[in-house]
Amino acid sequence: KFIKINLPYCQQLYYRQRGKVFTQREVNVDQYPVLKDYVPSLVIRLTDQQLILKLVRARHWVEYVKMLWRHSRISKEINGNELMRRSGVAVPTIVETGLGLFPAKNYQFIGYYLMEDLSVKGLHNSRDMFLSDALSSDVRLFFLRNVVRDVQNMFANRIVFNDFKLENIKIEVNTNGNIT
Q: What are the beta bridge partners of residue 14?
């Protein structure tokens, strides 16, 4: 149930809540490419497993207290993913989750989750695709209608998505230049 994740600048122990992708008790992730390293989280592509590892940082000491009531940022992200899935919005599948154990030296993350890497399935960042000349006006309109439909669906299901932006929407473009 316990797993240790080693980064170049810290080692941290986690309690695995769900899934068992990491079969070993200790995982070194310093050889994998970092996609984003910013204040709220660290995102790493586990290329050999075709997964994305997201390590979530606490923005404030209150996050550690919120962990006791499953109301921390990590819990909200995992629960939000499941809520959107149940409401019909296509989201990446989360295959493993873990919570950081009580603070110790170099304790930086309150938890982690592993999700499928959508780029392996041929999906692209919609912001980049939308701003490029690769899509026709009709395809852009089709894309925007789908986004509006999903936002309406989330609104109807009382789902608030705080980090809603084109960069967080993935699309697949077929060989004809159409979105599928």
A: 3, 100
CA 30 to chain centre: 19
The model's pTM: 0.83
Do 27 and 6 meet the contact criterion of CB atoms below 8 Å apart? yes
Condensed to tens digits (0 to 9), the pLDDT of residues 116-129 reads 998 888 787 888 88
Q: For the residues 23-49, what does the mean pLDDT come to?
A: 88
* Size of the chain in residues: 180
**Rounded Cα distance, 110 and 73, in Å:** 8
Pairing of strands 123-125, 109-116: unpaired
Give, in order, the Cα–Cα distances in Å from 128 to each of 54, 95, 140, 152, 174. 22, 27, 12, 24, 16
Taking the C-alpha atoms of residue 92 and residue 152, their distance in angstroms, rounded to an integer, is 20
Report pLDDT for 51: 93
